[in-house]
Structures are given as structure tokens and as C-alpha cells.
Specification:
Blueprint lengths: L1 H32 L8 H11 L2 H13 L3 H9 L4 H32 L8 H6 L5 H26 L4 H22 L2 H13 L3 H14 L17 H25 L5
Helix pairs in contact: 1-3, 1-5, 3-5, 3-7, 3-10, 5-7, 5-11, 7-11, 8-10
């Protein structure tokens, strides 16, 4: 029962935060930004919103960000006398659960785009490989990608929880500096093209959207939802294999870090 309570607590908390922020973004674009589009009817306005905003991208960024904070969940498990081994199992089940939620969210948004707003649905692999990758393959590819990024964020969060606040601050500054430097590197069209092809080959356009927002800021361009349909992608098989291997490595590291975690006094 204690394990189920912890599972439900995290699910309720994370879904409430993520969907609330997505809803706020939608309402902001509908009533605030949309108020400037006075010549549009409601359907046209909603069509414009779904073209300009990828709610799946926003949802994924929020979920990955939330999973980078691991200590509160760990503390709750210890307070409820849940062992570190059981906590690790619950954590992996939760990551799997949120990965599936993300995949379903992506599928629903694509279906809504296609059948309600007539926006081109993501048929990335069928276009590139003559239907070799069907919709199930795209779903599985998305599953492994989202699982990897959530697990990566949580592993980094578990690692940071081992340090004092001053060291956490230093490491955060270091990581932010690396990210900003990476974005500056991608301002170069050659590197951006390579990065785009890698991300699109594994159906990780939400990462590309997120990073492109920073790049547009560096270039003083307004951020918009990009259309990647004309970009040639790499064969995703090796990239997917790399992600699966890295996920297995991070699972081992995450387990070791979970066993090392302590409750701060």
C-alpha cells in the first residue's frame, strides 16, 4: 500500500503541474495573444494555435524538468519506510508510466492536427523509408527516446542530490554553461543541420524545438514552431541502438546512486 501511495502521489503531482502549465499556455495564446487576431473565427484561431505551439513539446520539457528533481520523492519513500531497492523499482515504473503518457499525448495531438485542423501528421518514417516504419514503429521509437531523456534527467538529479547546496549550485552553473555553449555551437548551420538530422531520425523533434527556441533568441529571431518535413534524416537504427545501450547504462548508474542517497538532516 505504501508503494502504491507513493506512485499515486507522484503521478498526481507531476501530471497536475504539467497539464496545468500546458493549459495556461493554451489559454494565454487563446485569450491574450489571440485577442490581436480579431478577424479570425474560433476555429481559425484554434487552428493557428495548434500550428504555432507544440503542446507535446511543452509537456515533455516540463516532465523531464520535474524528473530532474529526485530528492523529494526519495524523502517520501524513506518517511514511509520504503527501502531504496523498492523505491528504485517504483521510480522506474513511474518513468515508464510517464513515457507512455507522453507517447499517447503525442498520438492524440497528431490525430487532432490531422483530422480536425488538417495539419500534416507526423509520418516521418513512412515518407523516408516507404512505409518500412509504420505507426507502431514510430510509437516505439518515441517511447525509447522519451524514456531515455527522462531517465537521463533523473540520473543527473540523483547525482546532484548527493552534494551539498553549494556544490549543487556550482554544478548547475557548469551544466547551464555547457548547454548555452552547445546552443551557440548550433548557431552554425552545418552543426545545426547534423543535430537536426539526428534528432529527427529518432522522432525527437521536441528536443529540436526546445533547443531551437534558444538559438532563435541568440539570432534575435522570433521563436516559431518549425516544419521539419523537408529535412533528410539519418537511418535511425544505430541511433536507437545507442539510446537503448545508454539507457541500460543509466539504469545501472541510477540504481547505484539511489543506494547511495541519504536523507539530509
Amino acid at each position: 500500500m505504501k508503494e502504491q501511495s507513493l506512485f499515486k502521489n507522484v503521478v498526481k503531482r507531476y501530471l497536475s503541474i504539467s497539464f496545468f502549465i500546458v493549459l495556461l499556455l493554451f489559454l494565454w495564446d487563446l485569450f491574450v495573444t489571440g485577442s490581436t487576431r480579431i478577424n479570425m473565427d474560433l476555429f481559425s484561431l484554434l487552428h493557428e494555435i495548434f500550428i504555432s505551439i507544440s503542446f507535446w513539446t511543452v509537456f515533455n520539457v516540463i516532465i523531464i524538468f520535474l524528473w530532474s528533481f529526485n530528492y523529494k520523492n526519495f524523502k517520501l519513500s524513506i518517511q514511509n519506510s520504503i527501502s531504496r531497492k523498492k523505491f528504485f523499482k517504483i521510480k522506474i515504473k513511474l518513468i515508464l508510466f510517464f513515457t507512455i503518457i507522453s507517447c499517447v499525448f503525442n498520438l492524440l495531438e497528431n490525430l487532432m492536427d490531422k483530422f480536425i485542423f488538417n495539419i500534416s501528421m507526423n509520418e516521418l518514417y513512412s515518407k523516408q523509408y516507404n512505409n518500412y516504419f509504420n505507426s507502431i514503429s514510430i510509437f516505439l521509437m518515441t517511447f525509447f527516446v522519451i524514456f531515455f531523456f527522462i531517465l537521463l534527467a533523473n540520473t543527473l538529479g540523483s547525482f546532484l542530490s548527493l552534494f551539498s547546496n553549494i556544490w549543487k549550485f556550482i554544478i548547475h552553473i557548469f551544466m547551464i554553461s555547457i548547454f548555452v555553449s552547445f546552443c551557440f555551437l548550433l548557431v552554425n548551420p552545418t552543426y545545426h543541420d547534423i543535430f537536426s538530422k539526428i534528432m529527427l531520425s529518432i522522432n525527437a523533434d521536441f528536443v529540436l524545438d526546445f533547443v531551437s527556441g534558444f538559438i532563435d533568441g541568440f539570432n534575435h529571431h522570433p521563436a516559431i514552431q518549425n516544419n521539419y518535413s523537408n529535412i533528410t534524416i539519418y537511418n535511425p537504427n544505430l541511433t536507437l541502438l545507442f539510446l537503448i545501450i545508454m539507457s541500460a547504462i543509466f539504469l545501472i548508474i541510477n540504481y547505484k546512486l539511489t543506494k547511495l542517497q541519504q536523507v539530509n538532516r
